[in-house]
Backbone:
């Protein structure tokens, strides 16, 4: 029963429906007589982490601790630390890792410390994250990848280069480290350096996975890549994107042009942003479902991380 419940929770959360995932958890908890295995709690907390619902994850974790039926383990602490990271709650992450040792007698390992580093980095506290890494007796390529991602997010080139050097030593076949560093250079307008990184990546026999987004409508999967003009409705899609982009700018949104990774003129920056695959898929969703801006949701799937401008838009 517990395994089936965990699978259902993951299913709904993976499809973007965290509310139904929680309903499955609550309803099943009642059916079970309020006696779940710790793994089901861990599943729900980890799903909250995916969706950036840090406070909800912490509340459920507190419920688990208060009930006292079983003690939290190392795995559930990874989930709760991830939740703190994705919800930009670095201080809560620091509290949790201290509680882990002081209250429950669990010695944090490299994954727990990496989660704390990630929480500090995502929140823009890069100096603290770097100092925290130096205190770790064991650090691995995931630690440095997390830190490099934070440097890319907040535009810290010098720290990003240091992180990339460590990754190239520990994990030379990791394509995303080259991509992140190259994008960091491009965001600073250093396109020659970006091109040099790409050549080094290609010289190592590595290839960048092309980003794509897809949406499921009327029994069909519609796939988009950046600046995609192959879709039969591409003209209407681009018109819809312009309409939506103007609406959100009127509402106060400011395009984040640092996510344009091409050497283009100033007046072309927004056009480049509007060609991202996420926006193409969303615009197509509006066109085909007849939704307006007040409707509930359009579900778009991606194979890579969403760019910052698309996320904020």
Residues:
């Amino acid at each position: 029963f517990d395994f089936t419940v965990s699978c259902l929770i993951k299913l709904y959360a993976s499809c973007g429906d965290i509310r139904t995932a929680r309903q499955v958890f609550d309803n099943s908890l009642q059916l079970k007589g309020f006696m779940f295995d710790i793994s089901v709690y861990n599943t729900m907390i980890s799903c909250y982490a995916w969706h950036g619902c840090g406070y909800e994850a912490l509340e459920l974790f507190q419920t688990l601790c208060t009930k006292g039926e079983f003690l939290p383990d190392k795995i559930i602490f990874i989930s709760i630390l991830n939740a703190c990271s994705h919800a930009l709650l670095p201080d809560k992450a620091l509290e949790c890792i201290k509680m882990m040792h002081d209250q429950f007698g669990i010695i944090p390992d490299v994954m727990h410390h990496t989660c704390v580093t990630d929480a500090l980095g995502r929140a823009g506290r890069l100096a603290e994250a770097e100092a925290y890494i130096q205190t770790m007796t064991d650090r691995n390529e995931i630690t440095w990848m997390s830190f490099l991602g934070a440097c890319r997010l907040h535009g810290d080139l010098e720290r990003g280069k240091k992180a990339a050097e460590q990754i190239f030593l520990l994990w030379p076949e990791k394509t995303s480290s080259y991509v992140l560093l190259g994008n960091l250079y491009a965001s600073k307008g250093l396109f020659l350096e970006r091109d040099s990184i790409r050549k080094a990546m290609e010289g190592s026999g590595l290839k960048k996975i092309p980003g794509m987004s897809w949406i499921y409508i009327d029994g069909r999967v519609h796939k988009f890549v950046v600046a995609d003009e192959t879709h039969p409705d591409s003209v209407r899609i681009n018109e819809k994107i312009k309409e939506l982009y103007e609406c959100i700018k009127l509402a106060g949104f400011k395009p984040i042009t640092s996510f344009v990774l091409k050497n283009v003129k100033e007046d072309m920056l927004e056009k480049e942003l509007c060609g991202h695959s996420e926006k193409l898929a969303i615009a197509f969703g509006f066109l085909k479902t007849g939704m307006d801006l007040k409707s509930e949701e359009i579900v778009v799937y991606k194979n890579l991380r969403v760019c910052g401008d698309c996320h904020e838009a």
